[in-house]
Write a structure and sequence with these properties.
Oligomer: single chain
Structural class: alpha+beta
Number of helices: 2
Protein name: Heavy metal transport/detoxification protein
Order of helices and strands: EHEEHE
Domain HMA: 1-63
CATH topology: Alpha-Beta Plaits
InterPro entries: Heavy-metal-associated_CS, HMA_dom, HMA_dom_sf
Shape: globular
Low-confidence stretches: none
CATH class: Alpha Beta
Mean pLDDT: 97
Number of strands: 4
Pfam families: HMA
GO molecular function, one term: metal ion binding
Amino acid sequence: MTLISVPDMSCGHCKASVTEALTALPGATSVSVDLTLRRVEVKGAADPESMLIALLEIGFPAQIIAKT
């Protein structure tokens, strides 16, 4: 599981865009977005660096909070 902070995420469209971008990554088995906390939990074996790049490409700078 990887927990990511996405500070610029603020609406349903943001949530959908982030979910779509991360779900498309190889190894991502589930993506859960919390708009209130502006955090995303990704389960599976997707590469954390790839997650950050995918989010940046759609306009959402992010950072890894935790990786287990």
